[in-house]
Amino acid sequence: MKILKKFINQKSAFSAIGPFIGTLIVIITFHSFMFADNPSRFIQGLITPHIIFPMLFAFVCILPFGYLIGLLPSIISKLLFEHFYAVKINSASVSRATLYGFFLGLMWSPLILVICLATGADFKLFLYVEFVLILPVCIVCTWIEWRKAMKSISQSLKTTE
Predict the structure, then answer these.
(1) Residue 127 to residue 29: CA distance in whole angstroms
(2) Angle (CA) 57 6 17, round 5°
(3) HSE-up of 68 (CA within 13 Å, CB side)?
(4) Among residues 45, 19, 23, which one has the least CA distance to residue 32?
(5) Are 67 and 19 in contact (CB under 8 A)?
(6) Contact predicate 14/153, CB 8 Å
(7) What angle do CA 78, 65, 76 make, to 5 degrees?
(8) What sign results for the dihedral spanned by CA atoms 126, 132, 133, 134?
(9) How many angstroms separate the CA atoms of 62 and 84, rounded?
(10) What is the pLDDT along the chain (161 residues), one digit of tens a residue?
């Protein structure tokens, strides 16, 4: 746990945590799509050992690929965050930080929409990628960056006293 905290504090939350959260969201949604016809079977599948252990094994196997695929969008999100909100995050409240993450996620929507239109994908894919995948990841990563900024401010105030 200490190694994970050190990794998150040294790296940006977007590149350290973002691809992991995105992969977790994709795995959970695909798991729920498999059991969409019977929701009670989905809930039962989350607690049944002969279903949960293969699902966890698949998660461990899929995680490196999801992390590598999500690394490029996370780096772009990090650069967008640093360009637009890195200076403002030091004086922001938690609700303002949430709005920054929300707007950061919405900055992706034109690109995702163009890609969906160019490939002929269904509009539901755009909605899934934007509102289920990218928006929550951007909000959570912005919260983490806000917490890191608040910790550094409080530590600097303690050292000056």
Answers:
(1) 13
(2) 50
(3) 4
(4) 45
(5) yes
(6) no
(7) 15
(8) positive
(9) 32
(10) 666 666 666 778 898 899 999 998 988 888 777 777 777 777 777 777 777 788 788 888 999 999 999 999 999 999 999 999 988 998 889 999 999 999 999 999 999 999 999 999 999 999 999 999 999 999 999 999 999 888 887 777 777 76
Which amino acid belongs to residue 62? Answer: I
Q: Give yes or no for a contact between 85 and 105, defined as CB atoms under 8 angstroms apart.
A: no
- The amino acid present at 146, given as its one-letter code, is W
Look-up of token digits 């995948």:
133
User: How many Å apart are CA 52 and CA 161, to the nearest integer?
Assistant: 51
- Residue 35, classified by CB atoms within 10 Å of its CB into exposed (0-12), middle (13-18) or buried (19+), is middle
Could you give the CA distance from residue 95 to residue 104 in angstroms, rounded to a whole number? 14
Q: Give the whole-angstrom CA distance, residue 159 versus residue 109.
A: 42
State which amino acid sits at residue 10. Q
Q: What is the predicted pLDDT for the residue at 135?
A: 95
Q: Which two tokens stand for residue 59?
A: 């998660």
